[in-house]
Design a protein that fits this description.
elongated, binds coenzyme A, five-stranded parallel β-sheet
Length: 229
C-alpha cells in the first residue's frame, strides 16, 4: 500500500514535471514528495487522536521542506507540489486526486472561525504559484487557478480563474484537448479581466473628453438630438 502510494506519486512527478529526469532524482530532490509522504505519518497520528504528536510531526516536515500541511488536512492521490516552499494547507482543507500545486500556494481561510473553513479542491486541479484559495468552498474538477490569484468564491469545474479577486477567463481549448502545460504563463500583455474592462472604459472616457473639447471649441458639430431626447 505504502509502496504503491510512493510509486504512483513519483510517477506523477516524472510525468508532469519536465525537470524530473529519474525516479531517484524525484525521491531525493523533491520537497513536495517528502512533505506528502511525511503527511501520511502526521495524518495517521492525528486520526489516532495523538494530536500533539501529529502537530509536532507536521512541524518537523515544515522545518525540513518549507511546506506546511496541517495533519488533519485530507490529501488525494498523486498530489504534486512543485518547488513547494511556502505552501500552506489548512486544517479543514481537502485536496482531490491528481492535483498540481506550485510554491507559495495557500489553501486557507479568510475568517477566524471554527468548523470547515478551508477549501475543498476537486480532482486534477492546477493551482499556480502564489495563489491563495481562501474559504470553505469548492474548486471543481479540472479547474485551473492562475499564479497569484486570490480565490474567494467557488470555482466551477473545467474553469480557469485569474486575478484578484479571481474571475473566470474564457478557455481557448476544451479541457480535455488542452495539453498539461506545467509552466503555462500568461502572455506579456495579460491583464486581470476586471482591469482589462477598466482599461477600455478609461480609453473610451478619454476619447469622449477629447470630443467634448472639440465640440466646445466649435471644431466639431454637436451630435443631433433625437425626438426622444
Ligand atoms: C492560469 C494558467 C493555469 C493557464 O491556464 P489556461 O487555461 O491554459 O489559460 P491560458 O493560458 O489559455 O490563459 C487564459 C487567459 O488568462 C490569462 N492569464 C493566464 N494566467 C494568468 C495569471 N496568472 N494572471 C492573470 N491572467 C492570466 C492569459 O493571458 C489568457 O488571457 P487571454 O484569453 O486574454 O489571452 C496559467 O497561466 C498559470 O497561471 N499557471 C501557473 C504557472 C505557474 O505558477 N508556474 C510556476 C512555475 S515555477
Amino acid at each position: 500500500m505504502a509502496f504503491m502510494f510512493l510509486r504512483e506519486t513519483v510517477a506523477a512527478y516524472k510525468e508532469r514535471d519536465p525537470a524530473a529526469r529519474s525516479s531517484l532524482e524525484v525521491l531525493l530532490c523533491y520537497p513536495g514528495l517528502h512533505a506528502v509522504v511525511w503527511h501520511k505519518l502526521s495524518h495517521w497520528l492525528w486520526t489516532h487522536k495523538l494530536y500533539l504528536l501529529g502537530r509536532f510531526s507536521s512541524h518537523l516536515a515544515r522545518w525540513l521542506t518549507g511546506i506546511e500541511i496541517h495533519p488533519a488536512a485530507k490529501l488525494g492521490r498523486r498530489l504534486v507540489i512543485d518547488h513547494g516552499m511556502g505552501v500552506v494547507i489548512g486544517e479543514t482543507a481537502e485536496v482531490g486526486d491528481d492535483c498540481y500545486l506550485y510554491h507559495q500556494v495557500t489553501l486557507g481561510t479568510a475568517r477566524a472561525m471554527g468548523g470547515k473553513r478551508h477549501p475543498t479542491i476537486g480532482n486534477n486541479v492546477i493551482i499556480g504559484a502564489g495563489a491563495k484559495v481562501l474559504g470553505p468552498f469548492t474548486v471543481g474538477d479540472n479547474a485551473r487557478i492562475g499564479s497569484n490569484a486570490v480565490v474567494v468564491d467557488p470555482v466551477p469545474p473545467d474553469t480557469t480563474v485569474v486575478g484578484i479577486p479571481a474571475r473566470p477567463v474564457d478557455r481557448k481549448l476544451p479541457r480535455r484537448e488542452a495539453p498539461f502545460d506545467p509552466y503555462g504563463m500568461p502572455c506579456e500583455d495579460a491583464l486581470d479581466p476586471l482591469l482589462r474592462d477598466l482599461e477600455s472604459m478609461r480609453t473610451e472616457l478619454t476619447e469622449l473628453e477629447a470630443r467634448i473639447a472639440r465640440v466646445a471649441n466649435g471644431a466639431e458639430s454637436r451630435p443631433r438630438q433625437t425626438a426622444a431626447e
